[in-house]
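User: Can you recover a sequence for this backbone? Please restate the input before giving your answer.

Assistant: Of course. Working from this structure:
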């Protein structure tokens, strides 16, 4: 397995594979790999000859150089070696450990991602991680170009990310196929996440309320207004000892926020349990 660190090395390595007539699948991650990532690798192998697993440092929107460096140092000291072994064990061809260099960022024309404008406004106005969302729309497509990717593999747990990436690929007219894997859950039903390890046993027990409440909502015999659905979820999470960062009900195909469930929709939630441990999940629902 090759370990890539620079943008130029990534371009060179991917070109070698393209010259051999190989197809390339990209798995875009934030590192700290766990069992849930295995399904991404398997799907990537099923759709392409070469698998590129990337670790992206979500720091391009952080102004403090000290904070940026602390994020990089923490990863290198705690998870880098483990992630390398994980990739080697599961047959990844290239691991790209790339820190954004402002001088290397490609320049896209203003407004080129016109179709995501309304979705971006919705996500950022509701505090859906404005930095990372902009990252998905502007930075990640540039990485895909450097990788010369034919396929992008994402997990369905990150619904908003997938919507933004899908629109970005379309708007930039990139010849990339986007494929997604179903949410992979641990033995108790909690979606796999690197953040799960930060939960105590008691906090994890409380966090299980998130998938349980979503499953309950999906089984309702009829649906009230979206406001009532969201209020119910927020109240139930509070009673379970957690906080709701956001709860959205969106069109499953477009990501458009809904006010009534009149088509296939997805309930997208993010919660906090314990010492501010952020967890996300979602579930499909349809009109009864």
């Amino acid at each position: 397995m090759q370990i890539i660190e620079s943008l130029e090395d990534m371009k060179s390595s991917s070109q070698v594979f393209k010259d051999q007539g190989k197809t390339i699948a990209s798995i875009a991650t934030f590192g700290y790999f766990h069992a849930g990532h295995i399904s991404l690798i398997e799907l990537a192998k099923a759709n392409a000859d070469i698998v590129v697993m990337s670790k992206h440092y979500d720091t391009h929107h952080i102004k403090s150089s000290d904070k940026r460096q602390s994020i990089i140092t923490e990863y290198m000291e705690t998870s880098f070696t483990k992630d390398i072994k994980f990739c080697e064990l599961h047959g990844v061809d290239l691991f790209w450990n790339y820190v954004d260099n402002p001088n290397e960022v490609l320049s896209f024309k203003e407004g080129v991602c016109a179709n995501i404008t309304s979705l971006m406004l919705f996500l950022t106005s509701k505090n859906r991680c404005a930095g990372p969302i902009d990252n998905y729309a502007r930075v990640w497509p540039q990485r895909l170009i450097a990788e010369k990717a034919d396929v992008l593999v994402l997990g369905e747990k990150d619904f908003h990310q997938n919507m933004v990436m899908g629109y970005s690929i379309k708007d930039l007219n990139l010849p990339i196929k986007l494929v997604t894997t179903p949410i992979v859950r641990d033995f108790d039903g909690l979606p796999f996440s690197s953040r799960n390890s930060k939960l105590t046993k008691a906090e994890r027990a409380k966090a299980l309320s998130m998938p349980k409440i979503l499953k309950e909502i999906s089984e309702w015999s009829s649906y009230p207004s979206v406001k009532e659905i969201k209020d119910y979820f927020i109240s139930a999470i509070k009673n379970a000892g957690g906080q709701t960062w956001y709860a959205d009900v969106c069109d499953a195909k477009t990501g458009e926020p809904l006010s009534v469930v009149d088509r296939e929709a997805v309930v997208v939630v993010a919660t906090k349990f314990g010492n501010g441990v952020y967890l996300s999940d979602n579930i499909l629902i349809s009109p009864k």
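That completes the design. The CA atoms of residues 219 and 260 lie 16 Å apart.
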